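Hi R.,

Here's the chain you asked about this morning:
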Amino acid sequence: MIKDLSCFSLKHIFKKLNSINISINLRYSSPFPKPKEQMLSWYSYVNRKVKIFSNGYFNKARLVTSLIDFSFVRSLVADAYSREGGRCFDPVSLFLCDIFRFIEGLFSMKEFCNILSHRFSGHPYRTYAVSVNNVSLVRRISPTSEPVSVRTAIMPSSMSWWRS
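And the predicted structure, written out as tokens:
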């Protein structure tokens, strides 16, 4: 007896999650106080195709960011941010990085930040966490236009022990 497994197809799951995404984004729509110009990163949902290889491999980060629009996270934390002050990373980008760390089974944030700052192995995570104008979490934010890693950019100097 063959069972109908179409309810587990990506197309079916995407259709179900799309209605959930819409209701979440309507429910949580508080404006984020910081303008985009003050952000060091900015996430926006991009509908990407998910490729499942013949051996069953697929990119977990791509799957998660293709199925769910995480823009609502900005509204959830909007009251914790002020319009004044310096530049900051988009809370959605930071949230996604933590999700990626979790789904990859990494318990150490330090280990994940090392992967994230690596040119090749960190590229997919930076791509899926930030999706505007090919900006990545490894940004050119210093006056000398030298690349600065996310670890260096978001950590206060009092936490220099964490970088080592």
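The radius of gyration is 18 Å.

Let me know if you need anything else.
M.
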